[in-house]
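dumping the sequnces here before i forget
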Amino acid sequence: MISKEEVQHIAKLARLELTEKEIEKMQKDLSSILDYFDLLKKAPRTKTNYSNIPRNNGIADSNVTRKDEVISNYDKRDELVAAAPDKKDDYIKVKAIL
Amino acid sequence: MIDLTELTIKQAHEGLKKKEFTSVDLTKAYLDKIKKEDKDINAFLSVTEDLALAQAEEADIKIATGKFGELCGVPCAIKDAILVEGEKCTAGSKILENYVAPYDATVIKKLKEAGVVILGKTNLDEFAMGGSGENSAFSVAKNPHDKTRVAGGSSSGSAAAVAADMAVYSLGSDTGGSIRLPSSFCGIVGLKPTYGAVSRSGLIAFGSSLDQIGPIAKTVEDAKIVFQAISGKDPMDATSAEYAFKDLNVSLKGLKIGVPKEYFVKGIDPEVEKIIRDAIKKAEQAGAEIVEISLPSVEFALACYYIIAPSEASANLARFDGIKYGLSEGAGKDLLEVYLHSRGKGFGAEVKRRIMIGTYALSSGYYDAYYKKAQEVRELIKEDFKKAFSKVDLIFCPVSPVPAIKIGERTDDPLSMYLMDIYTVSVNMAGLPGISLPAGRQVCQDGTELPVGLQIIGNHFEENKILAIASQLEKMI
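..and the predicted 3d for all of it:
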């Protein structure tokens, strides 16, 4: 069974606050799911080098790139800023990090 | 007097053309029905009445000119993970409970150009994570065939709305079966397109290498009409493909249908197996050649999927930080506490579980054993299908090993819930198109009849072949 400390470590990496009860349930659930993943140890090794697979799900033969240009007809700036819960004038407010 | 809420897209279009009713008549009939009946189904998270009536009036003006397409003025429902400008988009989550979409998803833009009427936003498992609809933070969408059972997930409300005649058609999204599974459970048609056939811009991201938007409808023909309208290249989604749907003249006669032997082993409900086998037999009687095929690596598909999808989700859901949008629990002393509180309070149990699995699989020391291994096995799965499609035209198999489950039946055991996806996830791993076609009904001991869907899988961008064959089969089963 995955330890409480391990669950707490992963939760911190994931920026998730978990209650004591949630941690306990997570230990149980993650352990049974990770046990199921052991099935992959039976899978044959592949020659494919993972880093060479195009990041478009491999349907096209290559990655799709575009020029780094400003597209001026896309102006949703005000709407996007308006969606932030805490803002001042045109800025999104965040707590000080120092 | 015909019942306006029982029409297909095609029939609604004919009625509008002959001026038997207007789009406003049609829209009001659906809005009334939703008001009366959705309290027992929970298909909708929000009803966009003002938008729907305004769109219907606009459509009627277009219809009066005599020049209008098949979708013009026809009311539909949209999964609440797809953005509709100015309307709430919750993704079934408390963290986005009051979030208003700042722009339209590309599929919505396209439907608006076609004269769409949007009745409302439909229920779903939170962030589309689930197979039963029970992970919605707001309510469980019930199966119109038996209200003690789930509608299936994650596009639970989209399937329930169409099955209960509360929308002519709907849009869902499918990351590991989320269109096909609820379509199978609710006895309607659901198409998961090829990865890249439909733009994902404006779909709240879950697993970006797997997600696809697709139609849920009453008939194969309707699904085709919607798919044609929403597919194609979009500059807003770099993974969308140059693709234009073309009808294909193909029939069951002489068609080679592959049946994967690995899909008919332990775990499948014998009644489901019988219904699927009968459908395959009917295809054979119509002249198709049935070929047993092997997909040796699909054995690993579910494990693979439940590593890759949560890994991508853990990255995609990092944006819900209490700063940019949605719920913010700002009372903490520093930025880290805002993150922890907002996410701890805003996400439900399944979403937390998947973020944890994904973060674990990507974390230092485990990356090679889980994420990298899963990506390598994913290549084996793709190879299996590539080999299969060098021998056969289409693959027939079940959508789910079981019909709609009882509400609450599997909620305590996440792994048993994941196992319902065993026949659907491989299709997303390989980026293939697949449809769920109603194939029959399983009669329960208490006399209720539960629909069972046949899954038809095609090669990349061969939706036309799937749809042509599904349309022929639809009339036979």
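The two ends of chain A are 38 Å apart (CA to CA).
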